[in-house]
Amino acid sequence: MTLAQRRRVLEVVYLAPAALFTLALVAYPLGRMVALSVQEYQLARPWSRGAFVGLGHYARLVRDEHFWHALGVTAVYTVAVTALAFALGLAGALLVNRPLAGMVALRTLLSIPWALPSAIAAIVWLLLLQSSFGVVNFLLHATGLLERQVDWLLRADTALVAVIVVGVWKVFPFNLLVLLAGLQAVPTELYEAAAVDGGDRPAQFRFVTWPALKYVSTVALLLTGIHAFREFEQIYILTGGGPARSTETLGVQAYLQAFKFFDFGYGSAIGVVMLVLSLAGAFALVRVLRPGDFY
Amino acid sequence: MMNRWRGVLACVGLVAVLLGTVGGGPVPASAQEKVVLDFPSWQWGQPGYDAFFKEVTSAFVKTHPNVEFRAIPIPLEKYADQQIVRFSSGNPPGVIQWSLFDFHTFAKAGWLQPLDERLRATDIPRTWNKGFLGFTGVDGAQYGVMLSGSSQMLFVNQTMFKKAGAAVPKTPEELMDAAKRLTVRDGGRVVQYGLSMTSVAAPELWSYGLARWVTGLGGGITNDKGVPTATSLEVKRAVRMMKELLQAGAIPPGLGRIPSRQAFWEGKAAMLIEGPWVMESIKSQNPALLPSVEVAPIPFPHQIADASNGLALAKGQKHADLAWEFALLATSPQWMQRYAELTGVIPGRNDAISPKALAEKPWLKAFAEVAAKGRPQTPVGLEWAQNQVYKAIADRLSPVLFASEDLDAAAAALQKDLEAIAKSR
Hints:
By secondary structure, chain A is mainly α. Chain A is built from twelve helices and no strands. Chains A and B meet through helix 7 and helix 11 of A and helix 3, helix 4, strand 9 and helix 18 of B.
């Protein structure tokens, strides 16, 4: 065996544990999901369990008005949370990047929502937004902003807004931290040069800060978008997808189909669609904002 | 020569051991074999239930020293998910506790073992609550034994009633009047609600809320033949009553099943329709309220009683005989009495409320009487699809209750949803 061959064997040996680990924990569940999505697997129909149905579940998805509704809710939630969390994160990063007293403490405070487990955050907001005894209604009433309590999570016209607000609150610190890291990597000489050239603050932001942040912005937007797209826990705890399906995202729908209605085949088909859509979104965004084009 | 025979015997022994280990199907446990029965339950750690489980498992271990129980506490909301994972992977728990909500689904899935033959050797078919036993029968076979049933009563805060000069309601109309009269405002804000109940836009809106009213009025979401009845007078009347009280500010909106109980035991609501477990919560959370609490029959023409939870065996379960022995011990007269004493809920066995339990928990008598004659609120014919049914109800009726959607249109749409669910099997 030549040295090069030995090296190749060693590489394979070194990679094997990680590859096996990945196969077991990622590839197998994904493969199983895809396999289930072309099978009949309803607990209440044991006689038909495991029967191959081809693309039957996908055909059902196309005809299912609830699926299209959930897709729309998911799109609204994903776009709103991603855009608002990014905007808030950027504003926050610009604020705490200033060399002022108390900024370290402020950064820490602003990071808390990101550090909280999603389930805990959702329960806290559930209590805050509760119609009868919640703090939000109490404060709005006490300050005279509202005469009557608002049933935030009980009405279709407010529930999605409430869920988006909680989603933004949870994920904007991530954007803040990523963008702050990007801001701190910008050489101060560039700002000095821009100032010498007569550039005011908006011009400095446009010609120095923003180009420097493009790459980290891509990362932040991409990861926030994927996070929002697959968000389940928070929404499920806050509303369970209700009222009247107004907050039923694809993630919630897949869970309900599989674990509440015990139709694993159909739930898996929704999961596969989610997987394809999130992969497509990731590829598209990476293609649009290629690292080579950045500053 | 001797060595060769020893080798052959060792090989035969090894093969026998291996066959015993990897062979499928039930494994009879010898007296010496160490057996671990894992016991997942949402009731581990809960007052009363935890003590019962610890006592009864300890008693079992005394007569079966080779057995060890492994307690696995799981929240009720996650319980069915985890059981599904275990059953579908061919690894059911050693002790299988079922809840009202998923029992029929598991039985229909073919995961549970019919118990008819085992039950014939016991007094259970002859002496237990017939209504409860009816619930554990699926497609002509019995799949479970009951630990407890549930019945509903009206909990009343007598101090609030006396202050308002109100009488305990006995009819739906009186309930409406009392709920409005006992609602107290301070500067436009409600500081005391007349009636607390589950009032969320989620499946428990029905199972822990509206269903009690509809059942009390004599209706159901299906009739006795399993046909959906979402457009029935009883369903519409119950929705109208609840909406009227929500609009009057007499019911706090947005409360799940636990917070709705909490509102009562914290003295924020004057009435509550619930099961006997609420008394244990009051005792542990706000004992000062106990002297003010009275229980009365629900103010509807019909009383409500349902199965709650129990034990079952899985098909092909390892150590099925041991698990069955444990189920028989837990549901024996002695241990059912202990169950009532510790948990304060209605045991599955008819005659299992001891004088001691009645002395310590006098309200149990009223709950037991209702349990013997009440109507079940579980949807007949759609027991296997309860989650789907309750979700459809919440989706269709919450816009009527919490917004301004038309009741007749919503009920008609719900009827179609339920008919589609019924056809889907």
